[in-house]
Amino acid sequence: MSDVRKGQVTIPSDQDFFDATKTLIDKWGADAIRDSDGTKLDPELKTLSMKFYSTYFVARGHNEFAASHPAAVQQLYLMSERVVAYTPTLTIGLMAGYYDQQIQPNWRDNPKTYWEVIDRTTGMVVKPADWTVDEASQSVQLSAAIPFHEYTVSFLADMLWDPTEMYNHLTNNWGDKPHDIPFDVRDPAARDFIQSYLKQWLKANPEIDVVRFTTFFYHFTLVFDQHAREKFVDWLGYGGTVSVAALKAFEQIKGYRLRPEDFVDAGFYNSTFRPPTQRYLDYIDFVQRFVTDQAKILVAMVHSADKEAMMFLGDNWIGAEPYGPYFKEIGLDAVVGSVGSGMTLRLIADIPGVKYTEGRFLPYFFPDVFRPGNDPVIEARANWLTARRALMRKPLDRIGYGGYLKLAAQFPHFVDYVAHVTDEFRDISDKIADTIPYSSLKVAVLNGWGKLRSWQSFIVAHGKRYEQTYSYEGVLEALAGQPVDVMFLSFNDILATGIPADVDVMINVGSVGTAFSGGDIWQEPRLVTLIRQWVAAGHGFIGIGEPTATAQPYQGRRFQLADVLGVDQELAFSLSTDRYWDQPMGENIAWITKDLTLDFGTGTPNLIAVADAQYLRYGREQLRMTVKDYGAGRGVYIAGLPYTLDNARLLLRAMHYAAHKESILMQNYATNPNVEVHVYPGKGLYAVLNNTHDKQNSELFLNGKHTVVELEPDEIRWEREPQ
Amino acid sequence: MSDVRKGQVTIPSDQDFFDATKTLIDKWGADAIRDSDGTKLDPELKTLSMKFYSTYFVARGHNEFAASHPAAVQQLYLMSERVVAYTPTLTIGLMAGYYDQQIQPNWRDNPKTYWEVIDRTTGMVVKPADWTVDEASQSVQLSAAIPFHEYTVSFLADMLWDPTEMYNHLTNNWGDKPHDIPFDVRDPAARDFIQSYLKQWLKANPEIDVVRFTTFFYHFTLVFDQHAREKFVDWLGYGGTVSVAALKAFEQIKGYRLRPEDFVDAGFYNSTFRPPTQRYLDYIDFVQRFVTDQAKILVAMVHSADKEAMMFLGDNWIGAEPYGPYFKEIGLDAVVGSVGSGMTLRLIADIPGVKYTEGRFLPYFFPDVFRPGNDPVIEARANWLTARRALMRKPLDRIGYGGYLKLAAQFPHFVDYVAHVTDEFRDISDKIADTIPYSSLKVAVLNGWGKLRSWQSFIVAHGKRYEQTYSYEGVLEALAGQPVDVMFLSFNDILATGIPADVDVMINVGSVGTAFSGGDIWQEPRLVTLIRQWVAAGHGFIGIGEPTATAQPYQGRRFQLADVLGVDQELAFSLSTDRYWDQPMGENIAWITKDLTLDFGTGTPNLIAVADAQYLRYGREQLRMTVKDYGAGRGVYIAGLPYTLDNARLLLRAMHYAAHKESILMQNYATNPNVEVHVYPGKGLYAVLNNTHDKQNSELFLNGKHTVVELEPDEIRWEREPQ
């Protein structure tokens, strides 16, 4: 690491911390300083030749405005608890399970018009004439309920407290600091306020170089319960974008009217796991169009003030999804987001239509990690090695850190490690930022969301691990750092325009009925026919978990492409059919799994091999993998794939096997799964990565030439192309 | 065991084994001798004052008739393999995967009328004009197949070999012994033959006392594959009852025509796990009516010959289901069946409408168990203790053994053990055969089959254990020997006539979508309303596994009675909703599970507690039980319940808890779960059973009076009612 170049690094700072900050700027080669929610910068810092970022909140933090414009408050549709009627008279309390400091029913807009009472036992909407509201008790009364039916009320609610500010407020005990009331840019007064306030702010802050929008107008769906605990969280949820004005505008633009149930969705609130309905897709499009139009006004103002506009990827980002069709129009210079994995790095780094991307690395400088006796280097090292794999495929333009710099400075070993990271980052960036890495094949991840939610499959709350998703998320994490091109396709995409000609392998991964596996769209004959034909023509199809599955078996199959994958799932109905597990592991599976220690995670129960597939049984003798020839193509099935280095290698080999590209894989390859090879033909360079904290030896094939390598812990070794 | 009374015991015998048989008759107190498939009795036996049973095959074993009446052969509908079309021309071989010595396509009846080619990608039937048949190659040709659609042919096939005879033939290497061709009583010639042959046989066999029908006309569905291995087995399947004559008769009687798909059912063949369609229920009724009419003719002939008619419960028993509505009309004297468990004992012992029941105990005298170095007492003891619990509730009238008596006689320790069993059986029978045991509550098992398949839930092949069923079957096994009245109710029963007034607790147990859990019938508002109302009025509802579940969530719930049970199942859609596992185990669950070691089997994944239920997490911290008050009643949920003595106790406590009958349970109770108490008020007797092979101590409550007991291994202790 002889490189001494500086730059591409953003750090936070603190008040009364000027000299120490200067030292760290030097050590880490930082060229930008950011503030954070709750920190103020030392005025002396402004004397340095650095870029300055300022966090900017568009639609909160102005309670003087919000309080005087109560109708401009942000809103969402909520479902009451489910209440069983014991008699025809039934009272449903709206606020049961909600936090009254965050949520209040909207009594301004006529409940009879904008609310819905639903009989959840029949699915029928109760006639408005059959219920009344009582504002004093915050409840709805039914007069002709059917005994022992369950009822819910879907009501429009005001959101009186920005959820992120609320979380920070409660977590940091900010006491009687007023609650940030979020206001809705769709309200004309709010729109005027937002624009005029920014105008004035830009004038008042000439020293700021980068306006870091945190974020724009609408928070992802985040609702708290009566104990002020998180109750519902969907990082991708559009719940908080609704209002009477939005409903009216939608009707005018899209030509039909949405119902409360289109938002409430029986209590699932259009979770990203739900196969999106056309109505919800229409609504997303409608909000994206509107947010784009409003955001681009603000960005233009920033540019007019000779500043850059940066968007934080999170919090109030709804409607500004970076892979959406209108995003580029906003005209942002940059997007910054938190890097917790290779997958989240790619989510940021791959964003099209911006000048640069920045990743905030872990750990955040907070007392939970930076406490006496703890070694923050452990998390930093894991974070860097996980993210570095992905960086080798698509480098971020900048990296950074957040939190309290004073805390981090107390850990000299950590300060040194960050110096190593920033130097290594710049070195990688210098070598490969302007070149295209070699890919041995092109992979399409096929699900209900496609490109819009690139690298975002299975996310509930950013960075949290879920028992029901980790066995699927591993697929994206593996792909994030592999020498393959990755694209995301939706079912609608391929039904509309077919499978792109350059795709070698498609992957369908997820659990039955979800947007990621697909749900009942697999009963669409055109879909299965298209894929069968494409596979038979010589391509590869990989299913993981419950791919191509319908909740009910359809025409005798649960996996609708069982014929391609060589596997189906029993639902007890087929127990009468005998299964014979008398085949040895097939040679094709042996090739794919060679020398790997496999972990199928939560796996998938009750699998059966069909159509003469080769199969692998593992663990409690359950079926875990199948491979199958299908025409000139191949199907591969894997029961689950949590992220491990061995599992990543399993996927890489499976993809090359499925695509009939085994020999191409072996051209540039490390036999040790802890070691990965990346090739940069434009530079004549190879990178050999040790992805572990231990020494690793490996046989190596570079340009087909065999050699061996011994790598230090964490090492990245650059090699010139062998002749 | 001072009783020296003989009787109520049937044994097999052998040729050249007269004296040894006499000794065993004496030792075991046998009063009846049976032959078996493959054994011949010693003529001298006939001199003894015993009853003689003769196995009698009605519809096979007469190849001279069968060969001369090829159209009378038994038939079934089969589905070809699923074949993908690569081009519009597609050939589907009918015999792929079938055993040509068992199965041949029926070319006599016009395929264009009686077969169906189905596009399994669309579910559409292909027009007969678009396919042709080729008898020489046993195949069907499509001329206008849609490329990359999957097709199947449903064809009518002849069954050329009785499946049970085939199994015995292949297993015992009977070589070139001709294959028994089954013929169909629906054919007028076959009917005449069957009746006239029986008439002649009855005359020719005056020494036979009991005609043991093995069985009547139609074998349960049992098909073999191209390697002569079992391919499809459904002990309850009506697949082998069909023919053109049957189809025509059905249409005349029921007023509509069945399709091949009504039998083939996309390859599931109406497995007992499928929620029965009305068409299949109609067909079952139609076959039962016909079989009853034909069987009662034969039984009347037996009676005219002054013999008894006994039916073997199995093999060719289809249409003569003992819990069916017409069964009693057959006029049988007895039913005999194999006892592998408490559940199968009750299946036989509870049969209504016969003079006596007989259970064949294990082990069967075959060389697999009776081999040098093996101790057959191990299996005999386990079998007896498992069955004895159930016998205490509803005694069989007779017990017996089968196989080669010569083999058993070589194991003197086993001979002694059977003497113990037969004596203990007669002692129990003497004490309780004519009295009604005390029941502390009445339990109804609620599923799609109801009374028709009493004690037959989850059976695929008689006596086999399946990974997907053992966690549910344990419920019936537990109930079989518990001091509760058990009845079986179908959804249609309670929709038609409500829940019987004397039921205290209903149990719904099984996996989602099956006949046992129920499937989509749970979307019927009347069903859930009826049960909610009933529970709220003070009754108990117990769900085990995936009770009340629909494959797709309906109105936000997967378990449609989640409100009663306090539990629902996640399908990823609700991951956005936070779950807080911060409650300690509730006192109600603590009461139910007191001192028990629990085993939830395969359990049920992704459960969530709802509606303020008390819950239990167990094992890998998964939710495993909930209890909930519901009006004046209670719901209890258990994730799975394989049969163990502790689990049986768990169920017993849960039922009494659900029914608010905790104090009644404790009136007659052993605190040690290995010990069970039965009360016979009419006799003033208590039986205290040690269900294990170890000594057991227990506190005991008899008539509410506390005492302690120490029991020898396997002991049954009789006590007079304490005053």
What does this protein look like?
Two copies of one chain form a homodimer. With 723 residues, chain A is α/β, with parallel strands linked by helices. Among the domains of chain A are: 9-64 and 203-225 and 292-432, Alpha-Beta Barrel (TIM Barrel), CATH 3.20.20.80; 441-665, Class I glutamine amidotransferase (GATase) domain (Rossmann fold, 3-Layer(aba) Sandwich); 669-720, Immunoglobulin-like. The first copy, chain A, is globular and about 75 Å long. At the A-B interface, strand 15, helix 15 and strand 24 of A face strand 15, helix 15 and strand 24 of B.
Describe the SSE topology:
Two copies of one chain form a homodimer.
Chain A: E1 9-12, H1 18-28, E2 32-34, E3 51-56, H2 63-68, E4 75-79, E5 83-84, E6 90-93, E7 103-105, H3 111-114, E8 116-119, E9 124-125, E10 131-134, E11 139-142, E12 150-159, H4 163-171, H5 188-204, E13 210-213, E14 221-224, E15 230-234, H6 244-254, H7 260-264, H8 278-304, E16 308-312, E17 334-338, H9 342-349, E18 356-360, H10 376-391, E19 398-400, H11 405-409, H12 412-432, E20 442-447, H13 470-480, E21 485-490, H14 491-497, E22 505-510, H15 525-536, E23 540-545, E24 549-554, E25 557-559, H16 562-565, E26 567-569, H17 587-592, E27 607-609, E28 614-618, E29 622-630, E30 633-638, H18 645-658, H19 662-665, E31 669-670, E32 675-680, E33 685-690, E34 696-702, E35 705-711, E36 716-720
Parallel strand pairs in A: 1-2, 1-19, 2-3, 3-13, 13-16, 16-17, 17-18, 18-19, 20-21, 20-22, 22-23, 23-30
Antiparallel strand pairs in A: 4-12, 5-12, 6-11, 7-12, 8-9, 8-12, 10-11, 14-15, 24-25, 26-27, 28-29, 29-30, 31-34, 32-33, 33-36, 34-35
Helix pairs in contact in A: 5-8, 9-10, 9-13, 10-12, 13-18
